[in-house]
Amino acid sequence: MQCDPLRCVWGGTDKIVPVDVYIPGCPPTPAATLYGFAMALGLLEQKIHARGPGELDEQPAEILHGDMVQPLRVKVDREARRLAGYRYGRQIADDFLTQLGQGEEQVARWLEAENDPRLNEIVSHLNHVVEEVRIR
């Protein structure tokens, strides 16, 4: 089977017109075509909402929870993400470290206000991680 050089399989089209998304296959499968369309729409969305560099880009990034030692932050973050998933684990770890920085009684008040059994379970695991680091 011979492929048309304009399908970008052998590298023809991108020398004539700019190509943002390559759809693999000769011919591409329906799944690959849908994936290519989704990628193209995502790139279009990024180009529509693009912004130029500004003042925020030149400011140095702030370290989250700089008052906590780095190994503790990493262990708490990893454990929370393992238990609750990447996104929510990060939120829980950030909230936990913020509350812990204000005192352990603040953590208890936070848990009472949230009234979430799963959050209580995750925070108890995070407390064990903190205790392990304190023991060492």
UniProtKB/TrEMBL annotation:
Keyword field contains Acyltransferase: no
TM regions (residue ranges): none
InterPro entries assigned: Complex_I_20kDa-like (IPR052375), NADH_UQ_OxRdtase_20Kd_su (IPR006138)
Gene Ontology MF annotations: 4 iron, 4 sulfur cluster binding; metal ion binding; NADH dehydrogenase (ubiquinone) activity; quinone binding
Gene3D superfamilies: 3.40.50.12280
Entry cofactors: [4Fe-4S] cluster
Entry keyword annotation includes Repeat: no
Keyword list, A-Z: 4Fe-4S, Iron, Iron-sulfur, Metal-binding
Entry's family note: Belongs to the complex I 20 kDa subunit family.
Stored PANTHER family: FORMATE HYDROGENLYASE SUBUNIT 7-RELATED, HYDROGENASE-4 COMPONENT I
Protein's recorded name: Hydrogenase activity
Species of provenance: Shigella boydii
Gene: hycG_2
